[in-house]
Amino acid sequence: IELNSGGKLFGVDASSLISASSLTLKAENGMGSYGDGNPLKVYAENLSVDNVRGDVFIRDIRPYGTNLFSAKNAGGEFSLTTDGPLFISSRGVEAEGDVGLLVLNGDLHMDGPVTSRSGVVGVTTNGTLYQEASILAYRNVNLECGELDMDGDLVVTESQKGNIDISVGGDAYLTRLITGTEEGRRIYIAAEGAILNAGTPGELVTHDLILDAWDGIGYSNGFYIPLNTRVSRLDVTNRVSGEVFLNNTGDLVIQDLTWDGFSAVNYKGGFFISTTGTMTVKSPVRAYREGVILEAQDSFIQEVSGDILGNTDIQVSASNGTIVMEDGAETRSEAGSIAYYAQGDVTVGRLVTGKNAGERVRVASGTGKIIDGGDNGRPDIVTHDLIISAAKGIGYRGGCYQTLEVEVDRMDAANSVMGPIMVDNQGDLSLVDLNYDGLAVSNKGGNIDIKATGNVDLLDAVDGSGEIFLEAGGYLSQGVQGDITAEGDLEVKALSGSITMADGAVGESQEGSIYYTAQGDVTIGRLITGVYGGREVDVVSMEGAIIDGGDTGGADVVTEDLKLFATKGIGFGNALDTQVGYLDAANSGTGSIEIENTGGLVLMDLNHDGFSLLNEGGDIGIWARHGDLEAWNQVESYQGNVGLYADNDVILDSAVSGGEGANIVIYADANDDGTGSITQVSGRLGDLRVGDQHLVLKAAEGIEVPCTYVSSLNAYNSTSGDIHVVNRGGDLEIEDRLLGTGWGVENLEGNVRLENERSIIFTGESKGVFSVGDVHLLAGMAIEEMGDTTAVEGKYLVMEAEEGIGVYRSLLTRVEALEAYNNREGDIKVLNEGALLLQDIDPDLGEAGVAVSNAGGGVYISAASPLTVASRVEAEGDIELWAMETGDLGDDLTLESDVESYQGDITLLAGDDVVQERNTLVEAREGEVKVMAGHRDEDRQGAILQERRSTILAKGEVELRAKRDVKLAKVVSKRAGIKINSEKGSILDNNGDKTNLYARADSHLWAKKIIGRCDDPLDVKIKGGDLYVYAGGKLKEVSVDINGVVKPSNRLKVFYGVPPGLVIFNGRIIDCGRLAEEYMSAISLSNYMELRELERYRILLNLKELLKEEAVPWEVRGMDFPKD
Questions:
Q1: Cα 24 from chain centroid?
Q2: Contact at 8 Å (CB) between 123 and 142?
Q3: Residues 783/788/789/792 CA torsion (nearest 10 deg)
Q4: Tens digits of residue pLDDT in 475-492
Q5: CA-CA-CA-CA torsion for 861, 865, 866, 869, nearest 10 degrees?
Q6: What is the rounded CA–CA span in Å between residue 965 and residue 945?
Q7: Nearest Cα residue to 857 out of 951, 759, 935, 781
Q8: Beta strands 944-946 and 629-631, pairing class
Q9: If you average pLDDT over residues 574-586, what whole number do you get?
Q10: Which candidate, 1058, 1026, 1070, places its Cα nearest to that of 1045?
Q11: Whole-prediction pTM value?
């Protein structure tokens, strides 16, 4: 069949079908449709398609296969779906737009090219794609098949402006895949088999190449045929078996492009990747079972995120360039060795093997240096044996000393021309001749600086032309062959262990200074210098502690100026005994500084670094026995605590700060004799730029600290004086961190005033602030409660914040009176234990006559109990005041002053009564008011009492709910209704003849007893709604007596059944209640005589009108009553 349409060719509906052995389709304006799911359906063995403009959508349902002789669409997309195999002849497929080929069942044979001049080519089959001709797309190429077989050296798959994505259920044999090489272009190949090079010259050319295989890449069944690439970035994954072999031309970046955490990963095999240019590893390379070989003819760069992990040996080389491992970059072999070689410099990040015998790391630079890539807190090299050699220095960067950090058991180091040897080791270290030159360490061109965190055993000689520095972590031992020869100063260091000086041993320098340096501990016997001419003693521990070795012969150090440097502490556990006038101590790593001096002590910057005490990694503890302690220059611990203790006064004339999360502890009266104060003259305490800081203060005669930058405070004063702390820079947490009093801040004899630039936070880890006097809390942001413990206990509590008080959790207090201001945003939430008075306490704070004010949020204050509003409470948002039920009488909420919300609702709760005193106003200008008495009642109390001339006013609904009586003065809802409920009492007038209720919508009154009295009705004005009432009361009395206006109905509506007594509105009975059932059916006037006089009078007076009302019970209407 040949169909030729001058317009469009399409089926009428889904059942339309063209069936022919050979089918030729021609159209001017397209075939089939896509949007309505109605492609042109055919059943053809041989198919030819030619279209001029528009899109072509064809479905061939023949299950035995389709021969596509030719397909051409000059003006749009071409889409063909076949139910069986598809054979594309040599004429191929060509379309102006997208090309989509979908084979639902079977293989797809491409003998001809498939071309999209301006769109995408997408090919999908569950069988094998036999590609013997090229695929060319202007944009993306997407191939999805069971297996992929590209056959022929000239077969090319190319995307001119897009990407190539290939997904294969089995093996993928590739020839040439090409996209542009500009940034953003990509080839992605995923195969559940192997990815192989199908021919020569096979090559993958793109910017980003992503390979994901199951059974190897460039490797299959023992055959190595490396995949040739010319790409800028590479991401490789092999999952089940096989190796990865890949040769690249040009510079190559190995990078995670699929966000799986790896740039190259092989779960069962290894890697061999080479490139003719520079190779850069940006993301992890992982070989779980084998090794890794990476070769660059130029330089090799390993970035911090580009870890290399192999199970066996790892080799990295830069035959004509340098190797640069960024600080933090790691190469790790689980069960092999590592070799890094470069002709030029080698910059080491982190090289790690096992620590078993035979496992080693060899790093060699032919003509350059071996450089430490940076200090990231971990060793640069971890192995059993390290052989390291260079020409221009080891651990040296052209004028910059950057020590190589290692963790090895044995080491041989040699440098031949110039530069120092600088190595830091973690753990024990043996210096051994491993390259058989007779020396363990040799430097013919500079100094030797070797440090170890463990023990150092000198098994072979160390020889240097300059100074020699040996640092041992545990101890330093010189063997019989372990001679040390130096032309300059000799310094002995132990990095994580100790240098041992016997008790009473003396160190003395005749020509220069004394240096005792350790990475770990330094045990000092006696170090003595003259006390003239600026003589000094320097003791240094790089990562260890300086320890008092004993007391024989007197103080450990006697000198005028003492300089101490360590990294894991000075006098840790047993304070260093000194007799000095001035002290400068620094610790650059972990561990504390603990020094006990006899006599007054001045902390002074002796080494001109701006600090008198500096600990970069641990605590500081300084004692001045029998004297004052003065800090003239900055005292700082970068990572630890700071403690300054004096038997007398502490005078701070400089900054004192600790590390992140550190405690800053300052004690005057350290010997507890009742004397001593803390006075800050200048400087600051704490530094939040480095992290959290915790301040602990203890004194006997007052604490005055007007400049702190800390994140928490723990303070105690015992004898006299106030506690005054002003903090800046961050939130301030109040908790008992160290003092053990159970309170964060405690003053036994004075007031407490805490000011903070940001928030004050009670953590709940302990109770907060205790004072026998007043407590002032002033926060530039919020005052917050994070736990369930008391935040403040004292007499009066005054608080001011900008962003809320107890916003997330109510502030737990135990105070007699409260004044609180919040000026910008957030709520005020306080829960007080015991009776609480809301009162204007501080005349200098806020507006006179205001107890609680929130300009940007709500007020939520509860007390257990009672709660009294003595001064005005106002808020922009909601207000909730709650006198909580305790089980005792008197859990009342008493309003002696106004309560006003400008934009929110007001909720007043009491376990017992809510009392609104005379001339007070409760107003919700834009919201609702809810008053609940007897809330969560346990003692059957709970009345609402509005004294005369008191008002409840709301724009929205007003709801009053009480267990007992509700006595009303004036309740107003400007736009809504009023609901009043007395569960066990009555609703009564307490405003004389003035109106009790004003409402603009339906309102409800419900009482267990009565609403209004016969001699004192309730007065209402309801405009715009009905008034629904129900009351209990007694059978022969009045249940409801209301005067006023109810518009538009001008009547009451009785709900919840029939009340026991009469319902009277404006002096007229509108409902006889159950009187009608009990009396009126008897048609006897004598029954009415039993009523009270007023009730009887109203019945007789209104009987005529009553009978006309529809609301009268049916028993009354139509009865023949006596005429009189």
A1: 65
A2: yes
A3: 30
A4: 866 545 645 555 645 576
A5: -20
A6: 8
A7: 781
A8: unpaired
A9: 85
A10: 1026
A11: 0.55
**Cβ-contact 1088, 1100 below 8 angstroms:** yes
Distance CA 163, CA 827 (A): 55
Residue 454: pLDDT band (50, 70, 90) is confident
Q: What pLDDT, on a 0 to 100 scale, did the predictor assign at position 1075? A: 55
pLDDT averaged over every residue in the chain: 86
Given a contact cutoff of 8 angstroms between Cβ atoms, the answer to whether 304 and 282 are in contact is no
**Contacts made by residues 1080-1087, CB under 8 angstroms, sequence distance 24+:** 1080/1113, 1080/1115, 1080/1116, 1080/1119, 1081/1115, 1081/1119, 1083/1119, 1083/1120, 1083/1121, 1085/1121, 1085/1122, 1085/1124
pLDDT in tens, 166-178: 999 999 999 999 9
Q: Which amino acid is at 849?
A: G
Rounded distance, CA 919 to CA 317, Å? Answer: 92
Cα–Cα distance measured from residue 87 to residue 942, given in angstroms and rounded to the nearest whole number: 91
Reply yes or no on whether the pLDDT at 328 is more than 80: yes
Would you say residue 1106 has pLDDT above 50? no
Q: What is the largest CA-CA distance in the chain?
A: 143
| Closest among 1076, 1089, 1085 to 1124, alpha carbons compared | 1085
Among candidate residues 354, 237, 228, 252, the one with its CA nearest the CA of residue 302:
252
CB-based contacts of 558, cutoff 8 Å, min separation 6: 526, 528, 531, 578, 579, 580
How many C-beta neighbours within 10 Å does residue 200 have? 10
**For residue 325, which amino acid is it?**
M
Question: What was the pLDDT predicted at 483?
Answer: 57
Q: What is the DSSP string of 854-922?
A: ESSS-EEEEEES-EEE-SEEEESS-EEEEE---SSTT--EEESS-EEESSS-EEEEESS-EEE-TT-EE
Residue 36 has pLDDT above 70, yes or no: no
In terms of Cα–Cα distance, which of 319, 318, 315 is closest to 337? 315
How many angstroms from the chain centroid is the CA of residue 927?
A: 37
3-state secondary structure of 1031: strand
Lowest-confidence region among 452-456, 790-794, 1090-1094: 1090-1094
Taking 80 as the threshold, does the pLDDT of residue 844 lie above it?
yes
Q: What share of the chain is helix, strand, coil (3-state, %, to 5)?
A: 5, 50, 50
Round to whole Å and give the CA distance between 19 and 11: 12
Distance CA 492, CA 486 (A): 12
Is 1015 exposed, middle or buried (CB count within 10 Å of its CB: 0-12, 13-18, 19+)? exposed
3-state secondary structure 906-971: EEEEECCCEEECCCCEEEECCCCEEEEECCCCCCCCCCEEECCCCEEEECCCEEEEECCCEEECEE
Give the closest residue to 820 by CA, choosing from 846, 844, 843. Answer: 846
Give the pLDDT score at 1111. Answer: 43
CB under 8 Å to 602, separation ≥6 — which residues? 581, 582, 583, 630, 632
Output the pLDDT for position 511: 52
Q: Is 34 helix (H, G, I), strand (E, B) or coil?
A: coil
Most confident range (mean pLDDT) of 363-377, 493-507, 525-539, 1066-1080 is 363-377
How many C-beta atoms surround the C-beta of residue 1121 within 10 A?
13
Alpha-carbon dihedral angle through residues 550, 555, 558, 564, given to the nearest 10 degrees: 50
User: CA triplet 746, 748, 752: central angle to 5 degrees?
Assistant: 55
Confidence tier at 1081 by pLDDT (50, 70, 90): very low
- The residue with tokens 């620590």 is 355
- Report the amino acid identity of residue 9: L
User: How is residue 1074 written in tokens?
Assistant: 């159950």
User: Residue with structure tokens 């490789």?
Assistant: 236
Task: Please give the radius of gyration of the chain, using alpha carbons only, rounded to the nearest integer.
Answer: 46
